[in-house]
Structures are given as structure tokens and as C-alpha cells.
């Protein structure tokens, strides 16, 4: 379509194609020579999320009013951030404006990945209790503008979202939205995959989640959200949902004793697990202080875990090739028997072992805790830190924030893996040692099992497991609203170590 609208105060020649809308100033035949620079511009339809007819209305008027033209609501990129912007096209002809409106509406309805109806979970008790405000102030207005209907559950306890997701009718929704921190995200990702598995009646094999998940960051770390948005910004996150940007993401299953423990993206054993377990005992502290306290205390009592670490190296292949190879295949396919033989087993002392199927970007570690994995190439990074002195270990940790050389220490090994098995060999678990040192055994009920449990940090959640843990990577098990980013915006420096 082609027509004339005023953009700003000047008349423009406006052209609409299936791809974009462009406007060029109409130069008067005899320029007045006032020196104003007239600007042409363009907006891609893939960035436009709503179009409305503008009318002149008195404050008391509910409807009607003279047509003024169109408003196009679109997103603009600023680095990793998506920002909302409005283009005003003025033309007082009702007929002209309506025919453009209808055409634009029709073109926009062709973007099939954009959701129309979403299930929203808000965790009101996430970090600083801001989730409800964040949703109301930054997200709800964008959803309303884009005509996205919502069905909202404000969760009142841990596990609430999971129980709703197990029961609710999914086929009405186009997507699920989580407003919360890493804990809420982990619960919903686990819930979506578990639900798919239940629906497919496949108790053994994980099944791809049916609905995409949008994550509105409202927590204190927001690692998953940061990995698919590059920033911790609710507006960016909401615009990715509104515009239907979909990114497939690998997930891991964590199991022990032949039982599924949960689905997730990352796990830390050793330092990361112990530090989280310590922090959880100080729930009365504000969360940032709690984390610093636990970090410092765990460093002070640094000790290696004696364990057997086995892993199956990922088949080396570039990501486009592996994406092609796995197209349409079962995400859970067991390794071929020839691969079974390529397990590598090490035994020894480790200060920390992490397994991450996503890069885990955050403002603290802009290139991620695991810079050498991508969101969807079917492999995870295994980072095994052997025993070392405290000062060497601190040097290793500190380098995450500068994103360079954190792995170039003789005691750090990294591998790209598809499966990992960890068998703790020490019989001393964790609760005994800790309650003794803290001297406040009444806050730490110790349930003494035959084998003491070891603390794991799985997506920021404390999970205590006494036995071997098997971690398998499942390619593209879930879809998130967002996109692959290689580096997060960094604004925070951790000064506690
Ligand atoms: C990935 O591997 C495929 C198949 O071997 C090859 O054709 C392609 O060029 C590779 N792409 C990159 C980016 O290396
Ligand atoms: C990451 O990958 C690059 C290229 O594949 C490799 O040179 C580098 O050593 C890897 N780094 C780690 C820590 O594995
Ligand atoms: C996955 O991607 C990362 C980063 O691009 C690369 O270092 C790694 O080798 C890839 N792994 C596989 C199995 O393709
Ligand atoms: C771990 O390494 C440190 C520093 O090299 C050493 O002092 C300590 O004895 C080692 N721990 C064990 C259990 O071997």
C-alpha cells in the first residue's frame, strides 16, 4: 500500500510491504531553504506488535471521536535491550486510515508464533517482593496493547506452580509466563517437561515441552532469563514474548538411584552446593547478604570432595550440523552402544564440579559460567575444579567476572559432555560437619540416613542427594521466549571475594 501521512509535522510518502513500512518526506517543489533536514525511516513489521486508530476524544468521551490517524507500537533494539516505541501516522481521512489499519492488522496476524492467550505465574515472594509490581507496571500494559489474554495465578508456596501445571488444561494456551527468580523458573521448566512426559505417558523418556515459556526476571540472579535475553529487564523479556521470538533450549535430567530428581539447566556439586546449603540455613538474612556470608564462610572452610567423576564426551560437531542431525529425533535417544564405550572416568579430590547445559550468563559473569556451551547444541559444559589452595581457587572464581582465563589453571578441566555420573566416595556428608561448626543444631534437623546426603545446587535450588547422581543432556527439550546471546550486559561487580 502507498499513501500520504504526516510523520511529525511533515507529509510523508508512506509505503507498506509485507516486510516493512517505510516513510520518505515529500520535498516541496520549490524548497523554502529553511535548512531543516527531512528524514526517511523504516520499521520492520516483525518488530510491530500493535496498531491502533487514533481519535480526538474529550476526556469524558468513551468512544467515537474524529479519526486522527494510526499509531504503530513497535520495538527498538538498544544493544541487548528491546524498548517500546510508537510511530504516529497522521491522516484525518477515516476511510484511508481504516483501510491501512485493516491491512496492518491482517499482516500482523500472520506472525503465528506470537501468543494470543498465556498462562501467567507470578511469585509474589521472589527477591524484594517486586514480582507483582513488575508485572503490573511493565508487562501487563504491553500484553494488553498486543491483545494478549492472560490467566494469572499468584503462587502462594513453593510447588504451587508445579501442581497447577500438572492439572490445568494446556491446549487453550499458546504459552506460559513466569514472573519470578531462578527458583520459579526452575520449577516451571521442570513442570512443563514433566507435564509433557505425563501427557505422552512416557515414564522413562523425557518428552519435549509443548508450550513455550516466557521468563520475566524478578529475582536476584535470573541466570536463565539472562541467558536468553542478555539483560535482566522485564520490558525486554515481555517484548520477546509479545513478538513471539522462540529459542529452543537443551535441558538436563538429574537422576539418582534410578529415580528422576528433576529437570534443569545447571548443577553444582562441591563448593556451589555447600555454599548454597549454608545460605539456606540463614534464611532470615537478606538474600544478598546471605549469599556473601555463605560464600565467605564456605571459602574459609574450603575442602575438596572425594569422588568418582565419569563423563561421556559430546560428539564434536558444529551446532548447525547437530541441529540438523537431531531434527525430529527423539530428544531422549539413549547413546548408541559404540558411545557407551567412550566413557571417561576419573577419581580424585574436587573442590567443585559444575554441569551446565546453558551458558548461565549473568551480570556477575557476562560471558557465562559456562561460556563454551550454547543454548541448543545438545551438549553441556563440565567444569571440574581439582583440589588447590584457597588462594588459587579464589583466583579462579574471580576471573569469571572479567570473563577471561578462568579455566586456564592446571587444576581446572573442562569438557563438552552429553552425560555425567558423580559418585561421592567420602562417607562424611554435609550436615554433621556443618551443624558442629555453626553450633546451632536446633536450626538444622539432622536426619541421619545410612549415607549422609550431599548438597547440590540445581538451578539455584538446594537438593540433598546421598547417592550417585546421573546427569543427561536432552537436546532442545524446552522452548523459551528469547534468543541466543553471547554476552550479558554487565553492571554489577561482586566485591565480596
Ligand atoms: C558444520 O558442519 C557441516 C557438516 O560437516 C558443514 O557443512 C558446515 O559448513 C559446518 N558449519 C560451520 C559453521 O562450521
Ligand atoms: C572453548 O572452545 C574454544 C573453541 O572451541 C577452545 O579453543 C577453548 O579452549 C574452549 N575453552 C574451554 C574452557 O573449554
Ligand atoms: C556446542 O557449542 C559450543 C559453543 O559454540 C562449542 O564449544 C561446543 O563444542 C559445541 N558442542 C557440540 C557437541 O557441538
Ligand atoms: C588440597 O590442596 C591443599 C593445597 O594444595 C592442601 O593443603 C590440602 O592438603 C589438599 N587436601 C587434601 C585432602 O589432600
Describe the structure.
Strand 10, helix 4 and strand 11 form a beta-alpha-beta unit. By secondary structure, this protein is an alpha+beta fold. The strands form four sheets. Strands 12, 13, 14, 15, 16, 17, 18, 19, 20 and 21 form a ten-stranded antiparallel β-sheet that branches. The radius of gyration is 26 Å and the shape is elongated. 26% of the residues lie in helices and 33% in strands. The structure holds 2-acetamido-2-deoxy-beta-D-glucopyranose (NAG) (4 copies).
How is the secondary structure organized here?
Blueprint: E1 2-7, E2 10-16, E3 20-25, E4 41-44, E5 48-56, E6 66-78, E7 81-90, H1 94-108, E8 117-122, H2 131-145, E9 149-154, H3 160-167, E10 175-180, H4 182-199, E11 213-217, H5 223-229, H6 234-242, E12 246-256, E13 259-264, E14 266-270, H7 271-280, H8 287-300, E15 305-313, H9 319-325, H10 337-340, E16 344-356, E17 380-386, H11 390-402, E18 412-424, H12 431-438, E19 454-458, E20 461-465, E21 469-481
Parallel strand pairs: 8-9, 8-10, 10-11
Antiparallel strand pairs: 1-2, 2-3, 3-4, 5-6, 6-7, 12-13, 12-21, 14-16, 14-19, 15-16, 15-18, 16-17, 17-18, 18-21, 19-20
Helix pairs in contact: 2-6, 3-4, 7-8
One 2-acetamido-2-deoxy-beta-D-glucopyranose (NAG) is lined by residues 372, 407, 414.
User: Which structural class best describes the helix and strand composition?
Assistant: alpha+beta
Number of helices: 12
* Integer average pLDDT: 85
As for the CATH topology of the largest domain, it is Tumour Suppressor Smad4
Question: Uncertain runs with pLDDT below 50, 5 residues or more?
Answer: 319-329, 435-449, 492-497
Which ions and ligands are bound to the chains? 2-acetamido-2-deoxy-beta-D-glucopyranose
Architecture (CATH level 2) name of the largest domain: Sandwich
| Rg, alpha carbons | 26 Å
* Proportion of helical residues: 25-40%
The figure for the number of domains is 3
What is the C-level CATH assignment of the largest domain? Mainly Beta
Strand content: 25-35%
Overall 3D shape: elongated
Strand segment tally = 21
Characterize the biggest β-sheet: 10 strands, antiparallel
Distance between the termini: 61 Å
Amino acid at each position: 500500500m502507498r499513501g500520504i501521512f504526516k510523520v511529525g509535522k511533515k507529509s510523508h510518502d508512506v509505503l507498506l510491504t509485507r516486510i516493512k513500512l517505510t516513510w520518505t518526506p515529500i520535498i516541496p517543489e520549490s524548497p523554502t531553504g529553511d535548512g531543516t533536514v527531512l528524514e526517511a525511516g523504516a520499521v520492520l513489521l516483525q518488530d510491530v506488535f500493535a496498531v491502533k486508530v487514533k481519535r480526538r476524544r474529550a476526556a469524558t468521551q468513551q468512544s467515537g471521536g474524529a479519526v486522527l490517524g494510526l499509531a504503530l507500537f513497535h520495538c527498538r533494539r538498544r544493544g541487548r535491550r528491546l524498548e517500546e516505541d510508537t510511530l504516529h501516522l497522521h491522516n484525518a481521512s477515516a476511510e484511508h486510515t481504516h483501510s491501512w489499519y485493516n491491512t496492518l492488522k491482517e499482516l500482523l496476524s500472520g506472525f503465528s508464533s506470537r501468543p494470543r492467550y498465556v498462562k501467567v505465574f507470578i511469585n509474589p515472594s521472589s527477591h524484594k517482593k517486586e514480582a507483582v509490581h513488575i508485572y503490573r507496571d511493565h508487562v501487563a500494559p504491553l500484553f494488553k496493547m498486543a491483545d494478549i489474554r492472560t490467566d494469572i495465578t499468584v503462587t502462594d508456596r513453593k510447588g504451587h506452580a508445579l501442581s497447577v501445571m500438572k492439572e490445568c488444561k494446556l491446549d487453550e494456551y499458546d504459552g506460559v509466563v513466569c514472573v519470578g527468580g531462578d527458583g520459579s523458573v526452575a520449577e516451571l521448566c521442570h513442570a512443563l517437561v514433566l507435564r509433557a512426559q505425563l501427557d505422552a505417558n512416557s515414564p522413562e523418556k523425557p518428552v519435549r515441552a509443548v508450550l513455550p515459556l516466557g521468563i520475566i526476571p524478578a529475582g536476584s540472579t535470573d541466570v536463565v532469563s539472562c541467558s536468553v535475553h542478555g539483560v535482566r529487564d522485564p520490558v525486554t523479556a515481555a517484548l520477546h514474548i509479545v513478538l513471539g521470538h522462540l529459542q529452543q533450549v537443551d535441558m538436563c535430567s538429574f537422576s539418582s538411584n534410578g529415580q528422576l530428581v528433576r529437570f534443569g539447566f545447571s548443577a553444582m556439586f562441591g563448593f556451589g552446593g555447600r555454599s548454597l546449603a549454608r545460605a539456606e540455613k540463614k534464611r532470615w538474612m537478606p538474600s544478598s547478604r546471605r549469599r556473601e556470608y555463605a560464600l565467605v564462610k564456605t571459602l574459609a572452610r574450603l575442602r575438596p570432595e572425594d569422588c568418582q567423576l565419569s563423563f561421556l564426551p559430546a560428539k564434536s560437531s558444529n551446532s548447525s550440523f547437530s541441529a540438523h542431525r537431531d531434527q525430529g529425533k527423539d530428544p531422549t535417544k539413549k547413546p548408541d552402544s559404540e558411545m557407551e564405550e567412550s566413557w571417561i572416568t576419573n577419581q580424585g579430590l574436587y573442590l567443585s564440579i559444575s554441569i551446565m547445559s546453558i551458558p548461565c550468563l549473568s551480570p556477575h559473569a557476562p560471558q557465562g559460567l559456562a561460556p563454551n556451551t550454547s543454548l541448543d547444541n545438545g551438549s553441556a559444559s563440565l567444569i571440574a575444579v581439582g583440589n588447590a589452595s584457597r588462594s588459587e581457587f579464589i583466583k579462579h572464581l574471580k576471573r569469571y567476572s572479567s570473563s577471561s582465563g578462568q579455566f586456564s589453571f592446571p587444576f581446572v578441566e573442562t569438557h563438552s559432555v552429553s552425560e555425567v555420573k558423580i559418585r561421592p566416595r567420602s562417607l562424611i556428608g554435609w550436615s554433621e560437619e556443618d551443624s558442629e561448626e555453626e553450633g546451632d543444631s536446633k536450626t538444622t534437623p539432622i536426619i541421619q540416613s545410612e549415607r549422609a546426603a550431599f548438597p547440590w545446587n540445581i538451578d539455584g535450588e538446594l537438593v540433598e542427594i546421598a547417592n550417585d547422581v546421573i546427569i543427561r543432556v536432552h537436546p532442545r527439550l524446552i522452548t523459551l521466549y528469547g534468543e541466543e546471546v553471547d554476552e550479558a550486559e554487565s553492571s554489577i561487580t561482586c566485591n565480596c571475594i
